[in-house]
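Appendix B. One record, verbatim.
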Amino acid sequence: MILTIYPCEQTSSSCRQTGKQTLYRKLISALGLKIFQPPVLTEMPKSHTVFSLEDFNLACEATGNPTPTFRWLKDGELFGSETEGSGTLRGDNSSLDMLEGEYRCYASNSLGTAMTQAVKVNVERESQTYCIHTKAVNVGQSMVLSCNPPESSPPPSIHWMNMNLMHITRSERVTIGLDGKLYFANLMESDKKKDYICHAQYREARTILPATAVSLSVKPSNSVAHGGKPEFFHHRNHSQISALKGNSVTLECLPKGLPTPKVEWKKKDGVLADTTGQVINFDRWLHFDSITLDDDGEYECKASNAHGSITRSFTVTVEAAPYWVKEPQNLMYTPGETVRLDCQADGVPRPSITWRINGQLLTEVDEEPRRTVTGGTLIMKDVNIGDTAVYQCEAKNGHGSILLNTYLYVVELPPQILSPDGFIYNVTKGRDVALHCESFGSVDSQKSDTGALLSDPLLYPRISILTNGTLKLSDVSHNDSGEYICSVQNTNISITAKLDVFRPSEILTGPQAVRVVQGESAFLDCDVDTDPRLRDYQVVWKKGNRKLEETSVDDKYTFLKNNTLKVTDVQLNDSTEYSCEVITKVDNVIAQGSITVVAKPDPPSGLTLSNAEGVSVTLSWSPGLSHNSPITEFIIQAREEYHTEERKWTWEELKKVPGDFNHVELTLHPFSTYRFRVIAINEVGRSRHSNPSDHHSTPPAAPSINPTGVRSNSAEPGTLIITWDEIDKRFHNGQDFQYEVLWREADGSNVNWNSGRVRSPPFIVNNTGTYTPFEIKVRSVNALGGGPDPEPEIGHSGEDKPEEAPTGVSTTVMNSTVRVSWKEAERVRGRLLGYRVALLIEQSQHEEDRGESKTSAEVTGLRLFSEYELMVTAFNSKGESPQSPPHRFHTPEGVPGPPASLEFESPTEKSLILSWSPPAETNGVLQGYIVQYQQGEILNVNDPKVKHITLDNLDPNSHYVFKVIARTKTGQGPPITRRGATLLDGEPPKNITVTSGNTSVNLSWVPGERNRNHGFHIQYLKKSGGGGWEKSEQVNTTQGFYTLTGLQPGAQYHLKVVHGNSTHWEGEAKTGKTISESRRGFATQGWLIGLISAIVLLVLILLILCLIKRSKGGKYAVKDKESKEVDSEARPMKDEAFGEYSDGDEKRSDSQQSLEESKMGSVDSLAEYGDSVDIQFNEDGSFIGQYSGRASVPHGNESSGPASPVNAVPPPPVAPSMSSILNRPS
């Protein structure tokens, strides 16, 4: 590649030749020489059709000096005489028939001959008369009216009109074809006319020729009332179209059918929108006004109506008639120069090049060794004046030919160098450069700045000197920089040229091919490196061939500091090639990239329904633009409108098909009306839905499905109620939809089915017996028939209570667990839901349900040393059977529970009296008690009636942990545990806080934690007004406070705390004013604590009194208890009596009552066990509920209820006990 930077006259051969020709003319003018010019054609003829002598006109005009003469050849022979001044032919005195043929014009003078291309003239005579032909057809049929005008180049334009020259109205149904014929897709009665006339318009001849008129008669007919699938008038399914580049091409699809078909076009191997084609003539034509090579490819049209569709494909091959790539110029030369005439043409197929001289083929003139022809290039060496001539270059292929005339004029002038002196050539390393030395005359070999001749190829293999004096350097390096001299032989004429070599510019990181989602921003890089001397470079961004301009930061295009291009908010029209070009004064370099904007596809269009057969229909559509992301899937949605209210219409997904589908066969419900729409999906997302299709209704049919959920729902004996899940209206499939109900007894005695019909469930059958099994089935029926035969289900008539109780009840006792078993119930008269086990103990009842699959149950948590009574019943949804005969069993003796209570009294600082009450759950006969305390002392109490013990010689400074354990012959039970200590001898308080009121004084103190209670008196004396000491009532140290009342307001009092004869505290107080000791804050706090302690003590006393009252009120004789009417169903059962039933391991209760207590009748047995609790089993044997009743009492905190009628617990002391003090932690 040769890259140079010149002024205009140096940059191209045309510029250089222009400068050279200008210099020649100046020299000729200066020398007073006369300028001659070979012929140059200015007007040339065209092929056309003539209808009269006036239409015949073949133009041929030329300029030249001397003035050219003109002659014509017709069909290769001389036509007419040679003329001068003008060569245009006109048909003035000729016969019209003799004018038809092929013509060529020649213009000549003494310097040469120019010639035109051959043109054709067609002759047609005008015809103004026409006859009328009549055609008769039926309504709905298709029709073609022919038109055959005379041929012409260019072809005529066809117009269909009536006798009044009014155009026939065209539409999708009535169309003019490319052949000029008038096509009717289907005929209507309104098409009936007597004057369909075809007119051919020849624009070149300014002539319109009418053809034969047609009278069209349209008859009514019923044979095509329903129409049919589309067909094409031209029955070819595929057409091969060869087109010439730049010409207009039209692809035609003319369908026929009723209703009138719609036509859609697409490019099978590309996108139709990317071509230059336009859909016109009511979608019947795909027209290319000036077709390009990119329009080459496969095209398809599809015609469709309600009955189906048909397609036709076209293969378009775009070729090209010859066209010029490089044309030779008319130039002057001096003798001795080398002339190069470049005649380069292209086309598809590639044209051949032919050279002529003055109209004669080179093969017909004398051979000249100085003249060589290589392809489209003619070279003449060492030209002389005799070589002046007009040269013709003709390019020809199968699509036509083109011809150019160029003259070569040789004039004799003195030597001159035409290239400028001192010109600086800039080039980058590694490229080629040409140093020009245009001249006429002989030129010396060029020299470098060292004076060395450069013509020797052995010394300088990278350097060559061309015939026009140009010095060409290949693969230049920095060492080639410097000055070069060019001189003319035998003269002192010379010029100098300077060569500067630069490092090539480079784009280190160019723009890439990026994919961007629509609406986001795209970035294209352009990292540049240039020669340090070329810092003043320019970076140009182009979108396609359009240069991009930056306006503001917020604009579409932003150029960042590192030459990066930012494209904001990319849209679909931003998808194209982008280039970054770096331009310096020496070179330019380009890097290409692209932006591909991906977006959601456009919605499909052109929804059509075809091939409707029964409940099947084919839905077809045309995909929308995919926007650079292939469509992966189509979603077909349907909306059923016949069986649904309009306000409840919804679109539901019906089917999905891959993205390369454009149709789908749908199977629908009968007797329904649908509309469809399609959604396209690509990687970006879902398109908007297409416009809905036309309505499509399916014919009715017999039901295809039967209702599900057929079952009996009988409530009363003797009645069979059959019900089912209703079928959606969409599945009724026709009018008069009903349900046919069939039933018969399931024992096989009757093979015939009873039946009845209803419009909705339920269906009731009477007089069916109690819980009788039936075979039942329900079938869908409508006016056209019934659905498939359903499989029968088993149902039953209504249930009644079971008649018989379970038998064979037996038990196995294991400690507090009993396993109950029985035989399966009979005569249940319904579906057995399970068994109910009832346990009674001392008027208390517990019930439990057991699933029908098991005839045993395991009950845990029973009270030890107790007698139980057990009954079993069976139950169904209507109720229970009678109870089985009572079955009795005993639970064994066990260890007792802990004593119910444990209390302390401390008569001295070294002794304690422990008192306890018997266990709430003795679980047997008590044998006695064991007393333990912290130092390991163990005391046995072998008399169960003894419930207290005195402990002496205790350490007053220690706290003890005391345990009392009850025992039976089975063993020891758990202990009751308390922590306590003895009380210390205390004294009256010495730290007293005094608070005064208007007529009272309040004294408060903090009692000692373990101090024994002391009684003392408070003495007080009014200091003024006389009087003696007064004394309060006795006050206990445990009170924590005392209030002196009835005092005189505003008086000063002297106070004392006196015990016996000793005074333990003295102070003063004034009513109406608070007097405190020096430690006032602590005293105030102590008074508050004392007040709270007193309130707590009062609450405890009230609780103890309530417990005593309850215990006394619950005692009565066993016989009295048994004589009273007890509603066992109204009292809750206690957990102490019944634990949970379990199928697992045996569990032992820690709080069970003794058998003795239950047999003899404890004082609170009715209160605790008088209520009944029903606990049922599910069918699988699991519990429905849990036992309810009293929660078990934690050991050591039980109430002090008596253990037996003969062992009553002693009543609590009237005065408050000190247990709360004894139980305080140390």
